[in-house]
Amino acid sequence: MGHDTALLAVDGLKATYNHAITALDGVDIHLARGEILALLGANGAGKTTTLKALSNLLPAERGQVVSGSIRFDGLDVLRTSPGTLVRAGLVQVLEGRHCFRSLTVEENLISGGLGRGSTRAEIAGDIEKVYAHFPRLREKRRAFSGLTSGGEQQLTAIGRALMSRPRLLVLDEPSMGLAPIVVQDIFRILRHLNREEGLSILVAEQNSAVALKYADRAIILENGVAVLTGNANDLRARDDIKSFYLGQKAVAPSIPAVVS
Ligand SMILES: Nc1ncnc2c1ncn2[C@@H]1O[C@H](COP(=O)(O)OP(=O)(O)OP(=O)(O)O)[C@@H](O)[C@H]1O
Prior knowledge:
Helix content: 25-40%
Bound molecules: adenosine-5'-triphosphate
CATH superfamily of the largest domain: P-loop containing nucleotide triphosphate hydrolases
CATH topology of the largest domain: Rossmann fold
């Protein structure tokens, strides 16, 4: 893949917390337009830190990018405010299915549109699009989010992100704490959005099985280093990857690190 065509280009990213703890030690990510890219790794590998860096959110957490660069569609991310990045189309669904629990599902969606500065008519149209992708949310439109299921809250959080009209949707562990069938539903909808609307997606996951099933390519992080990158189908076929890099077994794979 030519780097000039990348929608997102992360090069040599190094990041610390409190100027002391090294969380990322050289991460490269190139995401092409229209691609679903999975960022895999065990607990603490650096997935969340990477995603926060993409939205320039690390300074708010006493995190520092020490070196490297991040470009989103030509924008220098590290010199761009989080709000400007959202308006430019880089939109995140943070870990833990954030929605406003005391607002209804529909009010949560409206808040996403208002955050972007959409007009009433745009918001109404965008809500209809979200409901077309998530019929479940239409059924629950008047329910307080705090009283809906974990899966419905995750869908609400994703729906709210869609209200910002993303070009790159970034999700942090959307599967967390959800039943396998709900996780499959969420990934199916994400792939549908990707295939039908050309939405580019970067998804961080510990659940490598589901992520590799739906992604085009994957990058594996280990101790803050991108150790492996490849086509999702190729990686899926390799048991050694699941067991070693994703934290289940202590025998290193003997195959070269770059698959494709
Ligand atoms: N706010 C913070 N302050 C200090 N250290 C942090 C902070 N957040 C993360 N770290 C450290 O940075 C490293 C990377 O953590 P990160 O949360 O990015 O990993 P992760 O792959 O997203 O894991 P998880 O699945 O737990 O979210 C870990 O060593 C972690 O302890």
